[in-house]
Amino acid sequence: MTGRERFMRRTGDRQARSQRIERRISAVSSIAMCVLTVLVQIVVTLLLTRLLKQHASLAYAFLELIGVVMAMSVFLRSGSPSYKLSWLCLLLVLPVSGMLLFLLWGGTHQAKTLSLKKVPPPAEREGARRQSENNVAKLTRKDPAMGRVAAYLQKRDFLLYNRTSAKYFGDGMEFFDDLIGHIQQAETYIFLEYFIIAEGKIWDRILEALRERAAAGVEIHIIFDDFGNLTRFSDDMIQSIQDAGIEIRDFNPVHRYVNRIYFNYRDHRKIAVIDGYWAYTGGINLADEYGNIFERFGRWKDSAVRIEGDGAWALAAQFIQMWEMMYGTLPNEDDYYRPRTEGPEVPGFCQAFTDGPLNNPDNPMEDTFFQLISAATRFLYITTPYYAVEESMQQALCIAADSGVDVRLMMPAIPDKKYAYIVAETYWGELLRHGVKIYKYTPGFIHAKSVLVDRKMALVGSPNMDYRSFQLHFESAALLYDMPAVEELLEDMDAVMKESTLYTMEDWKKRSWLRRTFASLLKLAAIWF
Question: N or C: which end of the chain has fewer CB within 10 A?
Fold first, then answer.
């Protein structure tokens, strides 16, 4: 290497470091502004309440009465019990302050005020609907439990497809290699919708493939979550993507809602669609740690699934709806983005679906988890990085275990958020008493989100088993019925358990009183983080 080359390399390294520092400063500033705004709102509300109590006692008493009435209203309305409990505690302990904060933050209706246009997904063809009904009938005759799950989702307009194959990925690099390979083959369009798109080696490879395809005339659209990428994606990179002829949009920009807490609502989906024929979803974001290029919390364990054939359209349709809800316009009619080749003749069925806060209090994602738990007769295996569920789901798992189902929960031994792990622990004692086996993934952090039922039905997607995924985030998943990929997931879960240690009742009882007390307080406020 010549002296000039070394100089240019050092200059480039310095510029890259400078850009990373600028991104972090900008991200910290944005987050600090949001946190400061919320804190100011709380402090002002408390001070106003104190002044009213001291100098306008009659008005304060009247507001207290309104606060109690509001607490009763919250209790009676439909929705998440955990969400209602948090507001009830605040409204009953501090009725006036709680009432003002409830009104200020929008209560349980915040998501409806997001700047998203009300747009239905692309209309399904009548032939596809009839085929889906036939598929549900066939599946029900074969297995009534699987048929009930499929019928439930079909009622919410998520069709059940045959002529669809699936490939399971339990390794990040294997997934990235496959995704990039299919991007390089794209002929018509590429859709990418990810919670995190981080600059690094993986993104460099993906961007190179996207640029080449864009230059060849392939239509490309990208959605990324603003909060998920505050420190990971620079303005210069966004400009570079746009310069390549690629359309890119950020979901729910944090700065837009600094005066409220709408930045709580995130696009947590992981969706890639190529030519309407190949589609991906799962837990893997487009970042280096997901391929273990560098280590963050030990070994990063994740999962994804590729759908090939007719079923890929389900995720394409959901991307189109999200793009249009964000006031984006696509250059072609919806039918242009449908697959142009009939899917393969393979066994089984596939049903991709999504969920989000705009559906509240109807939650297809959470309800599907309930149905999968109740459908299990032999075993139920679950991987999730976080666990903070409603009491009803906790009881469903306990009932399944008491009924003789082999229930196993796989979680990280090295968590990325220690407070979330401490909250998860509060649930484990009851699960253990009912015979649920809890495995801690010893090598590191398990980020995979999957459910396996009786070696015949599997869910692979983006939702965690917590309040945020079921109530606040936009999520995506694919359900596989009697497909070979179900067996691939079972093999991967068996490998995870071999590398894991069992968490016992003795471990749970060893927790210090300080940890238990802190965990109880965190659990009460878990919906906010």
Answer: N
* Cα–Cα distance list, 457 to 261, 348, 379, 521 (Å): 38, 10, 11, 37
What pLDDT score was predicted for residue 430? 97
Alpha-carbon distance of 250 to 26, in angstroms, equals 16
Residue 390 identity (one-letter amino acid): E
CA atoms of 42 and 90, how far apart (whole Å): 12
Token look-up 């965190």 returns 522
> Rounded to whole angstroms, what are the CA distances from 239 to 20, 242, 243, 248?
16, 5, 6, 9
Q: Positive or negative, the Cα torsion across 29, 35, 38, 41? A: negative
* Short-list 224, 479, 475, CA closest to 354: 475
Q: Can you give the pTM of this predicted structure? A: 0.86
Does residue 510 sit in helix, strand or coil?
coil
Residue 184 amino acid letter: Q
**Exposure of 482 by Cβ count < 10 A (0-12 exposed, 13-18 middle, 19+ buried)?**
middle
Q: With CA atoms as reference, report the closest residue to 307 among 506, 115, 412, 163.
A: 163
Contact of 226 with 251, CB cutoff 8 Å:
yes
Name the E strands within 283-369.
299-301, 304-309, 349-355
Asked if 159 and 122 touch (Cβ cutoff 8 Å), the reply is no
User: Residue type for 376, please?
Assistant: A
pLDDT under 50 in the chain at which residues?
Answer: 5-9, 11-13, 16, 19-20, 108-112, 258-261
Q: Are the C-beta atoms of 203 and 175 separated by less than 8 Å?
A: no
478, burial (CB in 10 Å: exposed 0-12, middle 13-18, buried 19+): buried
Alpha carbons 150 and 144: distance in angstroms, whole number: 10
C-alpha to C-alpha distance for 36 and 404, rounded to whole angstroms: 50
| Beta-carbon count within 10 A of 428 CB | 20
Note the pLDDT of residue 146: 97
Q: What is each CA distance from 65 to 52, 60, 88, 97, 258, in whole angstroms?
A: 14, 9, 14, 12, 30
Contact criterion met (CB below 8 Å) for 522 and 204: no
Residues 6+ apart with CB under 8 A from 81: 390, 391, 392
Orientation angle between helical segments 95-105 and 3-55, nearest 10 degrees: 130
> CA torsion 83→422→515→81, rounded to 10°?
20
Alpha carbon distances (Å) from 184 to 213, 275, 282:
7, 11, 21
Phi/psi at 371 (nearest 5 deg)? -65, -35
Give residue 69's pLDDT.
Answer: 77
DSSP state string for 385-401: S-EE--HHHHHHHHHHH
| Residue 174 and residue 290 in contact, taking contact as beta carbons nearer than 8 Å | no
User: Phi, psi at residue 209, to the nearest 5°?
Assistant: -65, -40
Q: How many CB atoms lie within 10 A of CB 213?
A: 23
